[in-house]
């Protein structure tokens, strides 16, 4: 009882008592808007349902997954890949501002780091439930390393990724600029290697012809960029809609930047998808053409054409192309459809690689196609992961200072123009204040016309 009322100090800082924390919690409940309370309640229900599914999947011997010897990798592998590549996509897009010094991408900084960290933690939670005993993998990777295995390198890079992201988020909210510069640059580098090794885990499996090949890691990196941009589009719509921190630059700067990158990403992933299907249809390798046919006209045709192509590629392209949809709500629609398309793309990829085994050693003798249906437990775990991701970011947005950070340029890239803090003599520059101080470049970009924005 004394611990609940007597104040304590740790490292010179006073720790609130239980009574004070209870009073703070009550005050937070009272001042929380009604809409946010409903959002918390909805996420709480999803977490409860998904938590039960997660607990059911833990005991050994309980056959609660939809996977089988025919389909050894199912929805949880897809969910892990989905959240893992979101992490890399966020870092790749934000590195344009934090590492390469492009001003229009600076608003991504704090939110991208927090989102990336939450996404990677979510991916680790999903794969932990899939593996049942992930601690053995950790000790096995450290005690018996296998440098020739892409899966070992995937664990190394994503483990390193987690540490670097924690450091980056820590330095974003503390005064450690030098460490932060190294962390930003390291994240940009690992954001390329991590999804590449993740793609290599699939790409080296010769027994699965649809996965095998050098283009699988490339496609994984490009899909990662697409997923990260879709998440950023949803977040910056919320920033503008609910007038969150830094909402003044969300609509004039962040949203046009995201739309520009989305257009580039859609062109790249569409070209890679066409190349993949054409190559599969023309391949003489047993199992390759059959996997493509399963996507085009077989049991996976509806989710391929209806979800991946129409919803995931055509609809976002139209929303980006039409002037009338270049609005915050148009960006939200583009982001949601792209995110659905990315998830379905990964699901199609995993299913098509297993639906027609090349030999009996590669799986089973199911003919003509193997069948897989996600179990309620797998769907519940996916729901848990989505709710955890949404709730964690909602709490971060509410209680952390998510305002825009400064430019963090570490390497002196030759195409980056130096920023001058003082007015040059004899220059007629309207971007400087009367007292000689330089106007914030983001404010200058926000007040520019479309033609001036392109020039800037």
User: What overall geometry do the principal axes of the alpha carbons give?
Assistant: globular
Number of helices: 16
CATH topology (level 3) name: Formate dehydrogenase/DMSO reductase fold
CATH class, named Mainly Alpha
Could you name the ranges where pLDDT drops below 50 across 5 or more consecutive residues? 419-456
Summarize the main sheet: 2 strands, antiparallel
Distance between the termini: 62 Å
Structural class: mainly alpha
Cα-atom radius of gyration: 24 Å
Structural topology:
Layout: H1 2-5, E1 8-10, E2 13-15, H2 18-31, H3 34-57, H4 75-98, H5 109-131, H6 134-143, H7 150-172, H8 177-203, H9 215-241, H10 250-282, H11 288-296, H12 301-321, H13 328-355, H14 376-399, H15 441-446, H16 450-455
Antiparallel strand pairs: 1-2
Helix pairs in contact: 3-14, 4-5, 4-8, 4-9, 4-13, 5-7, 5-14, 7-8, 8-9, 9-10, 9-13, 10-11, 10-12, 11-12, 11-13, 12-13
What can be said about this structure in brief?
The chain is an all-alpha fold. The chain is built from 16 helices and 2 strands.
Q: What does this 3D model show about the protein?
A:
By secondary structure, this protein is mainly alpha-helical. The protein has one domain: Up-down Bundle (Formate dehydrogenase/DMSO reductase fold), CATH 1.20.1630. It is built from 16 helices and two strands. Strands 1-2 form a two-stranded antiparallel sheet. A hairpin with a 2-residue loop joins strand 1 and strand 2. The protein is globular and about 70 Å long. The chain starts with a helix and ends with a helix. The C terminus is likely disordered.
